[in-house]
Amino acid sequence: MSHYKSNLRDVEFNLFEVFGRDKILGTGPYEDLDVDTAKEILAEIERVCREDLAASYEDSDRNPPVFDPTTHTAPVPAAFKKSYDTWMEAGFWSLQTPAAIGGTTAPQSLVWSSAEFVLGANAPIWMYGAGPFFARVVYNNGTDRDKRIAEIMVERLWGATMVLTEPDAGSDVGAGRAKATLNEDGTWNITGVKRFITSAESDLQENIMHLVLARPEGIEGVGGPGTKGLSLFLVPKHHFDPETGDLTGERNGVYVTNVEHKMGIKVSNTCELTFGDPQVGGGEPARGWLLGEVHNGIAQMFDVIENARMMVGSKAIATLSTGYLNALEYAKERVQGADLTNAAKTAPRVTITHHPDVRRSLLVQKSFAEAMRALVIYTACWQDDVAIAGFAGEKNELAEAVNDLLLPIVKGYGSERSWTILGTESLQTFGGSGFLQEYPLEQYVRDAKIDSIYEGTTAIQGQDFFFRKIVKNQGQALGHLAGEIKSFLEAEGNGELKESRALLATALEDVNAIVGHMFNDLMASQEDISNIYKVAQNTSRLLMAVGDVVCAWLLLRQAEVALDKLAGAAPDSGASKDKDFYEGKVAAAKFFAAYNLPKISAERAIAEAIDNAIMELPESAF
Ligand code: ST9
Ligand code: FAD
């Protein structure tokens, strides 16, 4: 039986009943895709994930790859390889690969909806299989030479990596010391040691293309300090014929010199990668090409990072959803204790779903999982708008900015809420059994913890959210989002949601006040720079508070749709068939608003009372 429990019904509800994706299919860039085909794609991906990809999830954890330092290899377990091959042969990777290099044009809302199934069933398959997605960045930023390399990466389904981190350069990417020197033939030699590089070694592909940030040396005007002095190089594991893609048989001097032993996602090789060390491998130089022949590495790498941040948030949220559905199944079967209303010693024992605290816990899980699924798909809808404008030869700056604003919420808020709730609620629902390897929960918790760390820790997401996505953007995207929520509140809604809407209105006011307070502290830092510490004490708080508000709003939007369906008001009402589903939607929205939104007033009070006491405390007093 599969560990993976999906929620295809809710994915379709979001796409076609809430966010109106049917309206963009059959037109513009998506002319060749209709609703029925989109639904078939979703259903088939869901099946493959539940049956084939999930099959190796547990085995990959119990029998992780073993690094051989003599050969610099770390082959993956056979069961995982089988799942990986099934996924790549199914060809759905093409949905996120440009048509110009062998992909298919599909809306990002469909891509990220289906990604949930892969990321929930066996996320490392998505990561090892991301080569064609990386090819998109190579293609979009590349010269003709690079565009051909991108084609080869897709044709031959090579692996690819993003190579930023070094022992002394984690969050602070700009501290990276790896160097690049120009050769006479226009290629570059890379030297240095990178660490924590995902998918840098396996036996899954014939070649791996590393996208490496390094600092050019000896060229005037480039290679200065910080992130802006970094350039992006394409560095293959094996050299190849740039016309045909055939391997030349020559090894490039980039070797994996360690694979980390980790808490979770053990099958996803996390590698130390050594470039151009004469003592390592055959001592060959590590040769590569400068992407696009321009020194614009950090901006190019952010094309990868933005996509990977969306992926990491989606991975966490997908794990919470399957965690919840496993917990729900268990709770419906586990008999323990009597109903609280029957105090007799001989009272019949009931399933734990009869206990108020278990119901509370299940609704915490359901409401967050469904709210954050909506958050992912809503964000992807803005990406659809960006693509639709691009197809028409235009630029939709608002859609770009709102997508940018939402990304740290998907990544930072999504991962924090998911990993916490998986531990405190989903695993907890199983009691002692949750602690056992017999059930998938303990692996889910271990596998999801990384999501709040890599691709920028939550602290980094909070700073990105406030300083870049709000201040640098002059509040335009946030203003637009707040405006959408306000319009929702002002529109005549279903009376049943009156109290929830009132809670949302107060919470929106509270986050506006937190933002205002942070702006004041920021202004005050021009007079006294230490005020910037106050701002930075509130950045993660703001990220989480806005996440709660957006999620509450999305759930209430869903509840409005559900109430319409239940009342049979909408012409295509499926009320009787889906009664439980829609009632669950209304209940989740009301619950989320009642249990979370009042806390934002307390967060506001905390934010407004921030002083610099913690910064003045001597380190020795900690
Ligand atoms: C990692 C990998 O952790 C984990 C999992 C890997 C799985 C891989 C496989 C799957 C992924 C598939 C991906 C496929 C890709 C395909 C795509 C297409 C479909 N947004 O503020 P400044 C830029 S990897 C955009 O001064 P500092 C911008 O150019 C390791 N751009 O920063 C800016 O210039 P300007 C992950 C942004 O103080 C420039 O950077 N590591 C953004 O110099 C400088 O900005 C991390 O994530 C943004 N949000 O540096 C590091 N932000 O302003 C975390 C910056 O002129 N640390 N830029 O526009 C940070 O993010 C830091 O804030 C910092 C600070 C390094 C940016
Ligand atoms: P640090 O940056 O040292 O952070 C330590 C703590 O300090 C954190 O809590 C952090 O939030 C906090 N902190 C640091 N700076 C600040 C600040 N300015 N303000 C507030 N708080 C701060 N990297 C790649 O390049 N490619 C990969 O494929 C890749 N895959 C990974 C896979 C795994 C399993 C792991 C564990 C890591 C991977 N990484 C990868 C690296 C990952 O992106 C970094 O670990 C992450 O960005 C944090 O860097 P760090 O570990 O050096 O922690």
TrEMBL record:
Gene3D superfamilies: 2.40.110.20, Butyryl-CoA Dehydrogenase, subunit A, domain 3. It comes from the Bacteria. Residues 296-462 form the Acyl-CoA dehydrogenase/oxidase C-terminal domain. Residues 162-276 form the Acyl-CoA oxidase/dehydrogenase middle domain. It holds the Pfam family Acyl-CoA_dh_1. GO terms for molecular function: oxidoreductase activity. Residues 482-618 form the Acetyl-CoA dehydrogenase-like C-terminal domain. It is an enzyme of class 1 (oxidoreductase). Keywords: FAD, Flavoprotein, Oxidoreductase. Belongs to the acyl-CoA dehydrogenase family. This is Acyl-CoA dehydrogenase. The lineage of its organism: Bacteria, Bacillati, Actinomycetota, Actinomycetes, Propionibacteriales.
